[in-house]
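Example 5.3 — dihydropyrimidinase
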Amino acid sequence: MSTPVKKVPIHLQSSQNRLLIKNGKIVNEDNIIEDDVFVEDGIIKEIGRNLIIPGGTRVIDARGKYVFPGGIDPHTHFEFEFMGTTSVDDFYQGTKAAIAGGTTMIIDFAFPKQGESILDAYYSYREKADSKVCCDYGLHVALTSWSDQVKQDMSILCSHHGVNSFKTFMAYTFMLNDSELYSVFDHCKNIGAIPQVHAENGPEGHEMSRPEEVEAEAVNRACTIAHQVDSPLYVVHVMSKSAGLAIKQARERDVRMIGETLVAGIACDGSHYRNPCFSHLAAHILSPPIRPDNTTPQYLMNFLAQNVLQVTGSDNCTFNKSQKEMGMKDFSKIPNGVNGVEDRMSVIWEKGVHSGIIDPMRFVAITSTNAAKIFNIFPRKGCIAVGSDADIVIWNPNKTRVISAKTHHQAVDYNIFEGMECHGVPEYVIVSGRVCVDEEQLRAVQGHGRFVETPVYPAYVYDPEKLAHVRAAKNGTLNEVELSNKLAKIELEPKVYNLPTLPNSAVSTPSCRGPRPEGQRNIQESTFSVSEELDVERKSCIRVKNPPGGKSSGFW
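Solution (predicted structure tokens):
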């Protein structure tokens, strides 16, 4: 009697398929080349011309199109319980929509419930997501309190569970005070993790109006604490000019800052909050809010072009109109959150590349590569290279689409980008070697995605040699002269390349990266200041009792 043949799941069958992408323009953060890409077993196996490939390989002709690494959205909230309700995009619906828009990996937030440990929150989110995700995903973990147990669990998550980032809050009832932020940042530095901060000013400032000065003050205060600890800092959802300028000034002082803005901030302004229709107004409520100054979106796009900000997320946290109506009589009870995971890539292309502010290479950097580097999954993700995961987008810059809730793939019943025409469409999206968008037709598979571990000490923000010498100096084994001679700066400035001239058929609006704005400082020309970087006993004693920025009053 013969042994029955074991059926291989469809997603595993698909990942073993061979695929050849021909005649496209491969775009990475640092170059554009015309080559073919051969994919096998979910991995990019060869790049070049006249490749010898096995028979039966599917061929996609990408002539006149761009071949991008799949987008990475570092900020989503699927199945998130918040303000008495739950976001409607679950891990299946949300990741399916992400793929439709050209995003092939998301990083969500494991958020502990009242009385739940951060370890249990991590396990809970893994259980929610693992069987549902259509694309790969990772997890940040939110810190809603501080204790020795939280500190211990952070170390366990980093060493055993593939988490390298922790989000803190300077607003809401679960905000941390300055002393606790100091402790979190310091522990993150010691374990090689990335502290993230939701920067708004405390309960007394977390109100309906939320002026941008509140956001800027919190950013400035968080920057000061991070600089004193000598920790990197990732500021989530930068939504205002003032907050962006605070990050720019901190980076000029050599604070290791990472700034993330949202597609909502790039495409919308606060005029929506004056709409007489409650449903329209409520649909645009998020925190921090989109700003009333209608020049803010272009400022944020310019900050991305200049590398003041490095990444774009969606902060996708969707609630239907009926859920938003919970705040009909009390504005503060409107569940905060908007859509964006599906439309992020198209909107950034429209507002950035098509408008002439950035080139396709910078587009790849801010939608994929920088996130991969920051969370230490590059070059597995974030580039088209031999050995990288076959997460690929074939982008047609000549096609257009109009965004609408009637045609999007998300569960939510509105779209804040309703009616926006976007030049540039993901014609094919390949996820781990499987064609999940085929000639604009979505064919995503539930459970096809995997959890991707994010290792500690990403080189993008932690320079190994620098850390070794700082520790040696603190232990008294290296003198200050040796330290100042040996410390290496971390390169955070974007590389500038000459963009090849493309035929009209390949790109709808030519654009290139402009020169550095006058007056912008090159941090590579700065010299390291030992007095700023080395801890001393006197300062340490003062900081522990009363961290920089004060406990609540801030600078203004």
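Remark. The chain has a mean pLDDT of 85.
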